[in-house]
Amino acid sequence: MTVQTGIGARVRRKEDVRFITGRGRYTDDINRPGQLHAVFARSPHAHARIGSLDITKAEASPGVVAVLTGADLAADGIGPLPCGWLIHSRDGSPMKQPPHPALSQGTVRYVGEPYAVVIGETREAAQAGADLLDPDFEELPANVDTASAQGVAPIHDGIANNLCYDWTLGDEAATDAALASAAHVVELDIVNNRLIPNAIETRAALGDYDAGTDMLTLYTTSQNPHLARLVLSAFVGLAPEHKLRVVSPDVGGGFGSKIFIYSEETVCGWASKKLRRPVKWTADRSEAFLNDAHGRDHVTKARLALDAGGKFLGLKVSTVANLGAYMSTFSSSIPTYLYGTLLAGQYTTPAIFVEVRSVFTNTTPVDAYRGAGRPEATFLLERIVETAARELGMDPAELRRKNMIPKDAFPYATPVALVYDTGDYQACLDKALALSDYAGFPARRAAAKARGKLRGIGLSCYIEACGLAPSRLAGQLGAGVGLYESAEIRVNPTGNVTVFTGTHSHGQGHETTFAQVVSSRLGIGLDQIEVVHGDTSQGQFGLGTYGSRSLAVGGSALMKASDKIIAKGRKIAAYLLESKPEDIDFEDGVFRVRNTNKAKSFGEIAFAAYVPHHYPLEELEPGLQETAFYDPQNFTYPAGAYVCEVEVDPDTGVTRIVKFTAVDDFGQVINPMIVEGQVHGGIAQGIGQAMLEACRYDRESGQLLTGSMMDYAMPRADDLVNFDLDVVRTDCTHNPLGAKGCGEAGAIGSPPAVINAITDAIGVRTLDMPATPLKVWTALQAGSAAAKGS
Amino acid sequence: MTGFGDFLREFGDSMTVKVTTTVNGKPVSGDVEPNTLLVHFVRENLGLTGTHVGCDTSQCGACTVHFDGRPIKACTILAVQAEGHQVVTIEGIGQPGNLHPMQAAFQENHGLQCGFCTPGMIMAGIGIAERNKGATLSEETIRAELEGNICRCTGYHNIVKSIAAGARDM
Amino acid sequence: MYNFTYHRAGSVDAAAAKLAESGDAKLLAGGMTLLPTMKQRLAQPSDLIDLNEIAGLNGITVAGGTVTIGAMTRHADVAASAEVKQAIPALAKLAGLIGDPAVRNRGTIGGSIANNDPAADYPAAVVGLGATVVTNKREIAGDDFFTGMFETALDDGEIVTAVRFPVPQKAAYFKFPNPASRYAVVGVMVAKTAGGIRVAVTGAGPCVFRQPDMERALSGNFSADALSGISQKADGLNEDIHASAEYRASLVVVGAKRAVAEIA
Predict the structure, then answer these.
(1) Residues 6+ apart with CB under 8 A from A152
(2) Do A666 and A735 form a contact (C-beta atoms < 8 A)?
(3) Packed helices B118-131 and B101-108: angle between N→C axes, nearest 10 degrees
(4) How many domains does chain C have?
(5) Which of A144, A169, A224, C21 is most exposed by smallest CB count within 10 Å?
(6) Which domains does chain A have, with CATH numbers?
(7) Three-class SS of residue A684?
């Protein structure tokens, strides 16, 4: 049984049946009797003062029940939305955090910012009312540009140069010395393009207040319902924690965008309490584009110092990161601790220094999006390494190999604060080169040339840090929350099991993977295990799902809880079998007195625990239910090597990926089928960033130019190919599963591989993402013009 | 002037009328306004919430249903236009324990993650299989014909596999 | 979506009369552009006159060297039609490149050309193949039908009932899709017809246009090489985040060459 369903088995997903038959239950599928509908009035301007706001016409509109504004919110003591990670600048001063009210209070700072909500009997009635709101906007100068943000008028009073913080990491003097003494210095300007997450389910919220019990239930599309409840109660003041139930039912993808606490769920909960009726809001796609936290948006200058033989001596990085108009829930941590700490990559670079200035602009807030900081670091590093190889005339694979941390050097402390526990980077690279037939590339390039096509190949060797992180360390670095995870195993009297996890699955397949872990550990069938998540009234506190943490941290908690169940089971079995707990073996679901055939099944032990007629009640409580919290000792460090091969049509600039190879090291894998699916999806998002997706604002008006799928190019089936995957396995040394996390790897490793391939194909030094046909064609034209001119 | 009988059906702005159609083989009816979209009729009037809304611009395909046997986007047709036609939603093609081969293929090949685009993908996949009946269904054809269905989770790799397998089993 | 009065027309005459009598009425054909536009509240027609249930407005007939396509014929039916594939394969191919399969199952040729979106594909076929647009009132030469961005020669109360395509000796269509919307950034129909060479370009400009320089060059020598010296002026072409005017101009030439190469 454990062979087919336990750890390492390609088990078909338990959750699929409801999804493939249309029986999934997403937030918008839930309706409550007497429910009202909320429509948010959103700023049409990138920056404006609201002189006056006449709500009387809207209030009088048929079917409108209430019109609420930021002033009402303030009057009811509903506080601003907080940022949960305090960063300090290099001078020791804390970051400048402007208030972020759930409904704007006097000034709007990005197109789409909500400034009022109209609540109606139907969505149409609310919309008709919202159309009658006639705010008196006084437009103010707006800036959407990252690089120039420090030089324009402040968009928040009292925040000079629009600078939130000026953060550094690493040894600047040592890095400067390395640069000064180097045989070669490679310099690169890099833009990491702003992305719009676009989970296919848009965000939604339904507040349902019961005045009889004073209980507010909030159904919402959250990746972390307990965290949402904590923030909404402790910081926003929506309701006390014990009077607030947050339910995240089936959630249609998150990619980070559903971690954060937004205006709309806050307002739906508050309005439901105020109006004593359920209040529902479901974003349309336009609202998702305008208002869901965006990702990336860095402008960077980097310098890599190398000795004459190609050894990396130092890396100096200066980045400006765009935070948008306000600080989202974790926005401050993304361009700092999730970015700067990754700049050693897989390499032994001895001196690294990074400075990050995070700035406010008149754009949608920016926060974690699949990879969150690590794709930005990896893109920078793998682009500059590739560029160095070209400038030194070295094979890019050889230059990487020469600088890789050797596999016998772990644990390895980097100059940017991390200690990698384990890895085998050379093995990943070797496997990727073999699988992609790297050696055969010159012949394929020649064949393509004969067909009039330009073929290129690009590598990327990434590292990431997942499963963050020891709570104590996170606290020292400014985190406002702990970073452990919890699990509860409730063995039912009949011997089957209900598992509660504080993580949340919105596509990752926890109902299957976590059941496999428990099945392996407790020796019971997969069909005897139900995994429950997403309802604060059912499971114990947990931190949710993001940062590829669920298995490494949540799965480890599950292992601990399983161990506690087994330990108690041993005591019960010892009593029943007239032995001692230390003489009881537990294997394949059977408690057995060592070297005897005296045994009790797991089910018999469960029954004995709940019907304790023959039971050591003096020493042991009845029941069989255990909770565990697991706090990680370190990050986990998945790593891998990706190879992308492209063919460019020089006449049109169209680039086709012809082969994509990914070799990853995720440590122990519970379900390879699910892990491969995660890698596929991550690669698709990375290729999307590299070739298709660009969030664009008009520089003059601040309007979002890519506000729908008509303008923002989402990766489609015909943009992509089948991916060739393989794995290398070095288990994480510090968690009980040896697992490292796989959710973000694809999105981290792939963008530089793609751009390295395209720049190789067309013979240019740099090309900003996304490498659209227009950009590739333009670069080729510039190249041929330069060639003609010379 | 138009004469009596020239219009098969007329009803005014903000009037609510009863629409009768066939959904999943059963006659159904519900009160709608002229501007009620088929997807909202199916979700809200009939409570068939397997058909999803993922965009406003007819791009994502999460709302794909079969209309007279062909996949269409239920977000880009009025509910009243379904009168006299046959609509089939994801709930109508197979149930737990009695899956349609395309549904079974999605589970078997891990062709879904969050599940939100999945009903539309399955309905589109059946359309691909039916349009290419008798022909060899290449990966390239499947990818090209999935143009109207967007998935953010899977990278399409396993969706393409699922549709190929589902088509074989249909 | 704003609300409206819905009329399901039983005949073209009834639809035309209603269209003439209500100022802000719009015809509902496939709805693939109109309904999304209304959903985004960018259009607020007082009345929608649904043409979908009118008998006799759809269907394909091929006879006497002409392919006649009823106005309410869905793109999918044109793309899949064995007769069209036989007579004008480029037309079937073009229809199969519009939107996506679900859109093609609803969208109609009449709706597409009456809307005259500058990035639509069908205008390139109508002009490039020298088609005739048949309405409830008259016949309009394809060359005269498209008058400007979203503008056509249709009068108030005039409804497209069919499009007649003369079968060319050869024709080919090149499409360069927008990476996001998949509409045509540039579409080029090249046809060798009884009346001479036609090159029609959609997507590139505010309205479909013929490319006389290319037509002349190809008249003398119908080969891709004949287009080598020809350039398309970028002046007046569309500009957006996906394609500059210069890029579109270049794609017109590349597209024409590729279309010619396919059939030369």
Answers:
(1) A141, A143, A162
(2) no
(3) 120
(4) 2
(5) C21
(6) 2-22+484-630 (3.30.365.10), 31-140+201-252+258-291 (3.90.1170.50), 298-468+634-789 (3.30.365.10)
(7) helix
Query: What is the interface size between A and C, counted as CB pairs within 8 Å?
Result: 41
Chain C residue with minimal CA distance to A714?
C180
C189 beta partners: C173, C200
Instruction: Report how far residue A336's alpha carbon sits from residue C143's, in angstroms, rounded to the nearest whole number.
Output: 61
- How far apart (Å, rounded) are the C-alpha atoms in residues A632 and A484? 6
* Residue pLDDT, tens place only, A74-126: 999 999 999 999 999 999 999 999 999 999 999 999 999 999 999 999 999 99
Which chain C residues in 127-186 lie under 8 Å from chain A, judged by CB atoms? 176, 179-181
CA distances from A35 to A73, A120, A273, A275 (A): 21, 9, 13, 11
Find the domain containing C14 and state its range.
1-50
Confirm whether C59 is domain-assigned. Answer: no
User: Quick check: is C127 in a domain?
Assistant: no
Please give the backbone phi and psi of residue A346, each rounded to the nearest 5 degrees, phi first.
-95, 15
CA distances to A203, A294, A358, A481, C230 from A334, rounded to whole Å, are 22, 12, 10, 15, 52
Domain stop point among C12, C32, C50: C50
Q: Which residues of B touch C26 (CB under 8 A)?
A: none
Instruction: Report CA torsion sign: A129, A132, A136, A142.
Output: positive
Contact across the interface for C180 and A772, Cβ inside 8 Å = no
- Please give the mean pLDDT across all residues of chain C: 96
CATH of residue C24's domain is 3.30.43.10
Alpha carbons A399 and C75: distance in angstroms, whole number: 54
* Cα C129–chain centre separation: 11
DSSP code for A3: H
pLDDT band at B16 (very low <50, low <70, confident <90, very high): confident
Establish if A255 touches chain B: CB-CB under 8 angstroms.
yes
Token couple for A703: 């309007």
C46, part of any domain? yes
How is residue A396 written in tokens?
């890019």
Cα–Cα distance measured from residue B18 to residue A203, given in angstroms and rounded to the nearest whole number = 31
Q: Closest chain C residue to B66 measured between Cα atoms?
A: C102
- Chain C neighbors of A129, CB-CB under 8 A: none
State whether residue B87 sits within 8 Å of chain A by CB: no
Chain Cα centroid distance, residue A331: 12
Dihedral sign of CA atoms A414, A418, A421, A424 in order: negative
What ipTM, to 2 d.p.? 0.96
Instruction: Sketch out chain B's domains with CATH numbers.
Output: 17-92 (3.10.20.30), 101-169 (1.10.150.120)
Q: Is the Cβ–Cβ distance between A421 and A723 less than 8 Å? A: no
Q: How far is C10 from chain B (nearest CA, A)?
A: 5
For the beta carbon of residue A174, count every other beta carbon within 10 angstroms.
16
The answer to whether residue C39 is domain-embedded is: yes
Positive/negative CA dihedral, B26, B29, B30, B33: positive
Residue from the list C5, C14, C36 with its beta carbon closest to the beta carbon of B76: C36
Instruction: Report the Cα–Cα distance between both ends of chain A, in Å, rounded.
Output: 71
pLDDT per position as a tens digit, A398-450: 999 999 999 999 999 999 999 999 999 999 999 999 999 999 999 999 999 99
- Residues in chain A with pLDDT < 70? 1-3, 786-790
Do residues C203 and C185 lie in contact, with contact meaning Cβ atoms separated by under 8 Å? yes
Contacts of C254 in chain A (CB under 8 A): 651-652
Q: Which residues contact A196 (CB under 8 A, 6 or more apart)?
A: A288, A289, A292, A294, A295, A693, A695, A706, A712
Tokens 């990559």 correspond to: A345
Beta carbons of A716 and B90 less than 8 Å apart = no
Whole-angstrom distance, CA of residue C76 vs CA of residue B148: 14
* B45, B88 Cβ separation under 8 angstroms: no
Task: For residues C103 and C79, give the distance between their C-alpha atoms in angstroms, rounded to a whole number.
Answer: 12
